[in-house]
């Protein structure tokens, strides 16, 4: 009798062929150059619009912005390594380095405030309309011509130094501020992966959502906002302080605290990171509210010392203290705390609306304080990581604060990108970033009298991006989860 081995092959085999659900091996390179092309279109269109070329040029700029957002979204479905993402970021930033100021004219306020400081006046007390030349004032947005600077003494020193070095030349000044923004971005690029390593998030994932985010490209590089310097100092200081805690290396920890304090001397919200590293220190020393209070007092003392030294060394004085509420003088339509006031104003009149806005802002501040207290308590008990706590507290400040600008979202997006695991919350953050990246036209200015032109430009831009998407689909760039 012959014993046959049992066959492991099914008598009938069915093979199903499907279109690939992931991207092909050459997709990342295709997306890299597609995004670079979008940045080129945005830059070229922006220059044409600044030369008053009309709606066609604006449509090209909008198409370029949309193309970058599209390729960034598709790139999130691929798996390139972190070094590839850094190189791609450099390529995408390249055209924006020579673009006119994008999405905002705040850099012209910086130039005027620097002129005020260079004239020996305090820009936190004296507005550009009083202390700057007529040429500099003419470039400032109408809302800010009569408004003193809301920034801290470190940035006032930067403004004065740039004016003195460039002699007040606006083109050279914009170049100098872009270099400062690039320095801040380099610090962010260094810090975000290290924060991600602390929370177990993949480096490439954190770089994609955080550093390659279109909001970073638009507002830190294209818009030349000083948030780049604030975020770079805050995040790098947080990394250094948290890395020093396991072995209680006091000098590196102090250096991290000082960097965070310097970030707050650009914009005050960076102080939130001191609450995070102070709470982390309390946990490292054994936890409990006694150690927490002691660590908190230490953070307050450090913040005061850094602010005093910065104010005296930069010869900017202490006028910045009374200017902290300057941004809230303009009612931001993006801020949810202002929405009840807009509704009340539409129904009962402007005075009732403004009263409601003031009341809602107070309520928002109370909610921020309560929310921050809850997050700190959860961090102290070890229920959330330090990086997650930073992202959560910054989210509260952005959402419930009196003013929201698209670039303010980066205060929360960057730490969240380094802490959120893959899932619905990460997806929501990415979607929100993509929406805000397309929410305002690429150039600063009042488009109220150019609505038909703006609508036509958006129609053209959407059509061009839609065509590019179809081309990418034919090239088998899949939007399915890789």
TrEMBL record:
Is Transit peptide given among the entry's keywords? Answer: no
CC terms in the record's Gene Ontology section: membrane
This one is known as Alpha-1,6-mannosyltransferase
Give GO terms: molecular function aspect only.
Answer: glycosyltransferase activity
Keyword Transcription, does the record have it? no
Species name for this entry? Lentzea waywayandensis
Transmembrane regions? 30-49, 56-75, 175-193, 205-222, 257-282, 288-309, 362-380, 392-417, 429-448, 454-472
Q: Topology in the membrane?
A: Multi-pass membrane protein
Matching entries from Pfam families are given as: MptA_B_family
Family statement? Belongs to the MptA/B family.
Q: Which keywords belong to this entry?
A: Glycosyltransferase, Membrane, Transferase, Transmembrane, Transmembrane helix
Q: Where in the cell is it found?
A: Membrane
């Amino acid at each position: 009798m012959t014993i046959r081995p049992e066959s492991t092959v099914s008598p009938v085999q069915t093979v199903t062929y499907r279109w690939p659900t992931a991207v092909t091996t050459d997709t990342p390179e295709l997306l890299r150059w597609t995004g670079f092309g979008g940045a080129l279109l945005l830059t070229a269109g922006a220059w044409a619009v600044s030369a008053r070329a009309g709606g066609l040029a604006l449509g090209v700029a909008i198409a370029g912005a949309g193309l970058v957002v599209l390729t960034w979204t598709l790139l999130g479905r691929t798996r390139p390594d972190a070094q590839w993402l850094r190189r791609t970021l450099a390529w995408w930033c390249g055209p924006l380095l020579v673009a006119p100021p994008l999405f905002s004219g705040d850099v012209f306020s910086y130039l005027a405030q620097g002129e005020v400081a260079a004239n020996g006046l305090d820009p936190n007390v004296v507005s550009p309309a009083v202390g700057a030349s007529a040429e500099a004032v003419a470039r400032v947005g109408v809302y800010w011509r009569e408004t003193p600077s809301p920034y801290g003494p470190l940035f006032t020193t930067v403004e004065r130094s740039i004016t003195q070095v460039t002699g007040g030349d606006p083109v050279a000044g914009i170049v100098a501020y872009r270099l400062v923004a690039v320095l801040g971005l380099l610090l962010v690029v260094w810090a975000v992966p290290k924060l991600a390593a602390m929370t177990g998030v993949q480096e490439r994932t954190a770089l994609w959502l955080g550093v390659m985010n279109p909001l970073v490209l638009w507002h830190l590089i294209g818009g030349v906002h000083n948030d780049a310097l604030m975020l770079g100092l805050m995040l790098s200081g947080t990394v250094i302080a948290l890395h020093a805690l396991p072995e209680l290396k006091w000098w590196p920890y102090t250096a991290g605290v000082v960097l965070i304090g310097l970030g707050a001397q650009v914009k005050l919200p960076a102080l939130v990171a001191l609450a995070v590293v102070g709470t982390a220190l309390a946990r490292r020393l054994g936890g409990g509210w006694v150690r927490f209070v002691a660590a908190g007092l230490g953070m307050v003392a450090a913040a005061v010392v850094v602010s005093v030294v910065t104010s005296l060394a930069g010869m900017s004085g202490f006028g910045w203290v009374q200017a902290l509420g300057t941004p809230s003088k303009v009612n931001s339509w993006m801020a949810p705390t202002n929405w009840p006031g807009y509704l009340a104003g539409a129904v009962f009149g402007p005075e009732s609306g403004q009263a409601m806005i003031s009341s809602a802002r107070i309520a928002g501040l109370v909610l921020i304080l309560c929310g921050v207290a809850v997050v700190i308590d959860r961090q102290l008990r070890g229920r959330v990581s330090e990086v997650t706590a930073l992202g959560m507290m910054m989210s509260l400040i952005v959402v419930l604060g009196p003013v929201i600008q698209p670039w303010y979202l980066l205060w929360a997006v960057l730490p969240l990108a380094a802490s959120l695991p893959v899932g619905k919350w990460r997806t929501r953050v990415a979607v929100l970033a993509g929406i805000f990246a397309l929410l305002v036209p690429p150039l600063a200015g009042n488009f109220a009298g150019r609505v038909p032109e703006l609508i036509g430009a958006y129609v053209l831009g959407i059509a061009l991006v839609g065509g590019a998407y179809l081309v990418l689909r034919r090239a088998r760039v899949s939007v399915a989860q890789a």
